């Protein structure tokens, strides 16, 4: 008997037919003699709809109340899926995040899991029940509901798999695995049989929407082998693990991220401690900074540009002007980030040249460049993002 954790995204449970489809997948796994814990997201566009409802009431709702509101989406999903499982003869029980034992810090809307108390889940499994857990949510020290941020259900599933030492953690989506690019937008993409944690983490962080980056971080930390597969088409998916075969591929994927803002500070004093002052203030506001570019100015001054999520740009701008007293600060929200990822780049030259050639051939201007051992990222105009991904993919894979 194996213990299997299965996670289903919002599109997989968006309506009655999809819910019963998921129920049959879960029941088949359970009837094969396995213990099963299921983690589900809110149905379809429920989370976006709830955010829109909040916007009708307030232009700046408190983060605590947003968590109280958004957590309801997953509660609808778990109850409906449990009903469907029981309807087809598979005993199931639904648990909210806090009933399942998720304890988090106090960072509303983007909380992090501090511990997972698994007694309730284990107790229900011992009664031969399928346990259906609401992803994306937990409880903090104040007994307030918290949410884990976008893609938090993936993180919930991996956390359960790690805590229970599950034999397998399956992430079901509306695609059949991890592809070299989004197969819905780029032609001739390839599905990967395997990919390493490091490569998947880079792709997830750079805009690939198959897996949440925090879930991959957690899987890597606790060595939880993941399988990404389709809830609609029963074919083998992509395995994400510590060591994967290279399959002769230098590059594992091309990704884009349109949730990018570029903030530029002009005429910053060129003296020790300046960067610490700037980025320390941003860290205090939990603003994640990605690419940083520092250029030499004149008269003892320099210019600093960095990228962050578009939703955090306004806060960053305000902090820099009010707390750091920088007056000459601007933000550009018309950007996107395109990236290529692959461990094979470490030992092969010319990959960057091909990426830049693809964009040059399509008259795409590069504003910023960032590199690491396994990735190259470029900031470009958002209107060019889809064209850039297709051109780079064609140059590297066709």
TrEMBL record:
ATP binds at residues 7-10, 173-174, 179, 184. It comes from the Bacteria. SUPFAM superfamilies: ACT-like, Carbamate kinase-like. Pathway: Amino-acid biosynthesis; L-lysine biosynthesis via DAP pathway; (S)-tetrahydrodipicolinate from L-aspartate: step 1/4; Amino-acid biosynthesis; L-methionine biosynthesis via de novo pathway; L-homoserine from L-aspartate: step 1/3; Amino-acid biosynthesis; L-threonine biosynthesis; L-threonine from L-aspartate: step 1/5. It comes from Faecalibacterium prausnitzii. Its EC number is 2.7.2.4. The keyword Nucleotide-binding applies. It holds the Pfam family ACT_9. Substrate binds at residues 47, 74. This is Aspartokinase. GO terms for biological process: diaminopimelate biosynthetic process; homoserine biosynthetic process; lysine biosynthetic process via diaminopimelate; threonine biosynthetic process. Residues 263-334, 340-398 form the ACT domain. InterPro entries: AceGlu_kinase-like_sf, ACT-like_dom_sf, ACT_Aspartokinase, ACT_dom, AKii-LysC-BS, Asp/Glu/Uridylate_kinase, Asp_kin_monofn, Asp_kinase. Catalyzes the phosphorylation of the beta-carboxyl group of aspartic acid with ATP to yield 4-phospho-L-aspartate, which is involved in the branched biosynthetic pathway leading to the biosynthesis of amino acids threonine, isoleucine and methionine. CDD domains: AAK_AKii-LysC-BS, ACT_AK-LysC-DapG-like_2, ACT_AKii-LysC-BS-like_1. The keyword Glycoprotein does not apply.
